[in-house]
Amino acid sequence: RHSGKLSVFELFVRVTTSLLFSSLSFSPSHVTFVSELSSKPAEKLSKYGWYGNVRLQRFHVPEETAIARWLFSVTKGHNFNCGQHNVTIHIRWGAPPVINPTGSLFPNSTLWAPSLSLVLPVTSHSSTTFNLSNPAPGDWYIAAHLPEDDGLGCKPQSVGLKADDINKLCGNSSYTNSTSDGNSSLGTDIVAFNESASLLTPLLASACVWSIPVLYEEVDVLSLRFTPVNGPNVSVTHTHPTLLTYPLHTLATGGTLNLQLTLNTTNVTLGNSSSVVACLSQWAPVLKLNHSQPCQTGLFGGYGVQVNASAPKALLRLPFPQSTTWYLTLQLTCNSSDCVNTSVVNVVPEVFVSACVEDCGTYGECRLLRSYSYLYSACVCKAGWSGWGCTDPSTAQSYSRQLIATLLLTVSNLFFLPALVVAIKRLYFTEASVYLFTMFFSTFYHACDQPGIAVLCIMDYDTLQYCDFLGSICSIWVTILCMARIRHVFKYTLFMLGALLIAMSMQLDRKGLWNLLGPILCAVLIMITTWVYRGVNRRHCYPPSWRRWAFYLIPGAVCALIGVCLYIFAETEDNYYYIHSLWHVLVASCVVFLLPPKEKGREKLGWSRGWKWSWSWRPRVCGYTLCESGKDELYTVT
């Protein structure tokens, strides 16, 4: 009982990194190369539906590393018979890779750059290596996943990324054929920047820049806010740029870097040709902001925005920003006449790190993910919406579809009412209370579980889900035990013991398949054992009536079998609303057929024969109870 199923593939990814870096020996004229091996345990892969399906691993590359080598090896298990499938691997420095395998839309004002990607086919045995000379020191991130529509129903045994011999580190670089030229140049750009970074220092020292100190505040996990020391307003002029520096540490790279620039036009009026140009860059600031190349240097490019009188606000979002120092350069651009009238303007630069883009909007939920000690966030979308921020409506569900889905899943629980009436009429009050519990929490759980805006939550979602799962399994448990017709002492003991064990299993793995099949098989085993025992003792089939078999047991068993098969084998994310509603109807209907008739030894209100109801009242005076003598008084008659 869950909204949607995700096909999980038994593919395991293990990443091993071999590093070769230089170290000075005792002799100043010699350089000694030492090697280092880093490995992570295998992780299970699944198809890509959202970023939570990606398996992310982080490796630290020390300074002065000569070669970083990754060996990716794919091994197919013996039970894999589903054709060829591909594993996609993304590599990026400084932050997790931003990927878009489905080609969905990104939110407005959200910019991202593709990372280096490799595609590995899942064959009997295939491997590929990736060598990177003079890699940038710091953290490197590797993300692996399966395609969205690849491998449905297939269960390959393992995909391992194994380490090769350390002595082969000096060999030539090898790339997969799927690596594009644009992606492979990413590593070259990083190396070139490392070689040229020292050349930028004299230029920055001699440049005329108005630098504004910035404070930062860690509000929460993946929540960081930067504030200028002198207040939110920053003065910007046309004579020289204004520079603000934002150091971004590793723990903040799993969120989204936001820049919101607001022009303060309270006391100053800009001309039509005047605007404030801003450039957000990493590694080093862009010191020349002109119209031809407003946010570009010979080595790298930044992210440019501008505000003016007609558009006083500008927004920029960067998912998974790299761990480095970010620079915001501001400068007023105007013609000669406008610059004379307005020499200085005030802008409000708001720079902050948030977990997700606008908290994933109305049709999404921001999830906090973890890869070992590294935390990052992503949006999981609902109601057919997609995209990085759940803003792509290409496959979105309409409001009428959402409403129909909610009504189907909630109204179908009313089929428990006939089962409830039959249980009360046959004096099975304990079973009836379990059915009432299940009907109530299943109705409101599905009303709260629905995506979109057709949602009603009367309490915490996790509580509703737990009670729904618990009531569903307990309903099946008590119904089958009631069919066994065992003694009341044993029956209610098994009721309680089974409920406790089911509650424990729900806490361990709420959506596990054996949480449903385990109680069913145990209860059926108890019922069959009891029926066989009675049939052997009576030398007659039990239950003895053929009408009971033809009109109740067989139809009820068929309903239950169809419901379980639909739940396990036929239910998918697309047909969930219909199949799961049918599951509600079939399970509730089978209770009406399978619940045994009233026991002959039971009277109304559930009291067994032989019980006596006695009631007496004794008055209390000042806290004392007046006693009665049980003896009869004797009178003498003369």
Automatic annotation (TrEMBL):
Record domain EGF-like: where = 379-390
Q: Where is the signal peptide?
A: 1-18
Where found, per UniProt? Cell membrane
Q: GO cellular-component terms in the record?
A: plasma membrane
Q: Which InterPro entries does the record associate with it? A: EGF, NGX6/PGAP6/MYMK
The protein's topology relative to the membrane is: Multi-pass membrane protein
Q: Which UniProt keywords apply?
A: Cell membrane, Membrane, Signal, Transmembrane, Transmembrane helix
Membrane-crossing residue ranges in chain numbering: 403-421, 489-508, 514-533, 549-570, 576-595
Q: Which domain of life is it from?
A: Eukaryota
The answer to whether the entry has keyword Signal is yes
Keyword Disulfide bond annotated: no
Report the main location listed first in the record.
membrane
UniProt record similarity statement: Belongs to the TMEM8 family.
Tell me what this protein is called.
Transmembrane protein 8B-like
What organism is this sequence from?
Echeneis naucrates (Live sharksucker)
User: Taxonomic classification, please?
Assistant: Eukaryota, Metazoa, Chordata, Craniata, Vertebrata
This protein's encoding gene: pgap6
